[in-house]
């Protein structure tokens, strides 16, 4: 089986990138990370790519005259690596419809809450967890979804609940949620790689796997 070629977009520490690389290396994922693109220089995600001999490049919006030129550059790089799935892993830029249409149905994102709670414009990083704690929810969680033209509005692939503790801080909740992110993102990518995700309107149907004795 040919491996799914992943282009991972990052802006920070890259612990999800690491989890994806590890799940490729272990053979769990029939995929390989072929290019890492960071919107910022000097972030630890770039170091992780380097350690695994994965090509990486910084494409920063501030180096381009406008959003379209910035996104065109990323699209050009992703195409040159023949990427089959674009994986947003802590990528802090919202992609325009121009870019989303260019990779229609082939962009995934992970968000550290149960969408549609605590998501959309302005909800990123610890702000998500602070909002969940301020609201007083007893359960938060993780969502993996396809990216559409909106902010965190695309069809949901997988979700998992994570309990909120009475003494949680945004940091402690983020850490517990992150542990779950590291499991659920490889699961969602595996389903895509096995061609088992079918988008019907807003819903993502998961096609059952073949049994060994089929
Ligand atoms: C994760 O919580 C992810 O859900 C959010 O940004 C964080 C990135 O963490 N979009 P990392 O860079 O993968 O460690």
Distance between the termini: 18 Å
Strand line-up of the largest beta sheet: 3-2-1-4-5-6-7
SSE series:
EHEHEHEHEHEEHEE
| Poorly predicted spans | none
Main sheet overview: 7 strands, mixed
Share of helix among residues?
Answer: 25-40%
**Number of helical segments with 4 or more residues:** 6
Shape: globular
Give keywords.
alpha/beta; 6 helices; seven-stranded mixed sheet; single chain; Rossmann fold; 214 residues; two-stranded antiparallel sheet; binds 5-O-phosphono-beta-D-ribofuranosylamine
Overview of this structure, please?
This protein has 214 residues and is α/β, with parallel strands linked by helices. It has a domain at 4-110 and 143-156 and 181-206: Formyl transferase, N-terminal domain (Rossmann fold), CATH 3.40.50. It is built from 6 helices and 9 strands, in the order E-H-E-H-E-H-E-H-E-H-E-E-H-E-E. The strands form 2 sheets. A 7-stranded mixed sheet has the order 3-2-1-4-5-6-7, sandwiched between helices. A two-stranded antiparallel sheet has the order 8-9. The radius of gyration is 17 Å and the shape is globular. It binds 5-O-phosphono-beta-D-ribofuranosylamine.
Short description:
This protein is α/β, with parallel strands linked by helices. The protein contains 6 helices and 9 strands, in the order E-H-E-H-E-H-E-H-E-H-E-E-H-E-E.
